[in-house]
């Protein structure tokens, strides 16, 4: 595995791949790698000849009081995991490289970014889309792979790809879970055993929503009631929102149909977690 920090090195490597006719897959990450990230590498490998992974904790997507300074970082571990999984190029830019002094251009998302995560984390998605756009321009991938767990993020990235005509294929890979059902997340390292037990309420509530829909429930209010009943059994879990929404605009639906997204966000102590399911997808 090659590793580069400088943008010029990345561009030189990418130029060589193009000259040799190789398709490039891309997995952008903020590091603190886990099996969910590595599953994205596997998917990128299936769809391309060379895989690039970026590791960059993006300051633009953290708001005041969020966990930028304590966000888990372990580049040595990330490097070993990426190489073992078959990443061909690890791109580890500095903040100064991606945001040199005086840089103030931002990608501003539309109204789909204003609700759910955007309502809780003002400016978050402008930071996400700005760094993703920069990385797409630098890596110039043929295919980019994102995880379903960050469903609003990937919906907005897909819209950006379409609206700004990025010449790439965007692929969404399923959420990877631990055997107990908890969705893999870099923030899970913050959970002690009692907190983790409370966090399981998210996946339990989503499973209940899936079962209710399979049993014929199509009323969003009734489905939300079923979810709230499950969450009430986990008193350490404090919901931020319960969203039963369409997959394009992420707006609340009048009736639940196959493809409807159920997205949850909640706090366990100081740790904020998100999870979702796509009804009828299993």
Structure notes:
This protein folds into two domains: 2-173, 3-Layer(aba) Sandwich (Rossmann fold); 186-277, Pantoate--beta-alanine Ligase, Chain: A,domain 2 (2-Layer Sandwich), CATH 3.30.1300.10. It has 282 residues and is an alpha/beta fold. The chain contains nine helices and nine strands. Strand 3 (50-55), helix 3 (75-85) and strand 4 (89-91) form a beta-alpha-beta unit. The chain starts with a strand and ends with a strand. The radius of gyration is 19 Å and the shape is globular. It has helices spanning 7-19, 35-47, 75-85, 95-98, 117-120, 124-139, 151-163, 193-214, 220-231, and strands spanning 2-4, 24-29, 50-55, 89-91, 143-147, 169-173, 237-245, 261-268, 271-278. The longest helix is centred in the last third of the chain and has 22 residues, at 193-214.
Order of helices and strands: EHEHEHEHHHEHEHHEEE
CATH class of the largest domain: Alpha Beta
Total strands: the figure is: 9
Cα gyration radius (Å) = 19 Å
The name of the CATH superfamily of the largest domain reads HUPs
On the 0-100 scale, what is the average pLDDT? 95
Q: What fraction, in percent, of the residue positions are helical? A: 25-40%
Overall number of structural domains: 2
CATH 2nd-level architecture of the largest domain? 3-Layer(aba) Sandwich
N-end to C-end Cα span = 36 Å
Strand content: 15-25%
Largest sheet: 6 strands, parallel
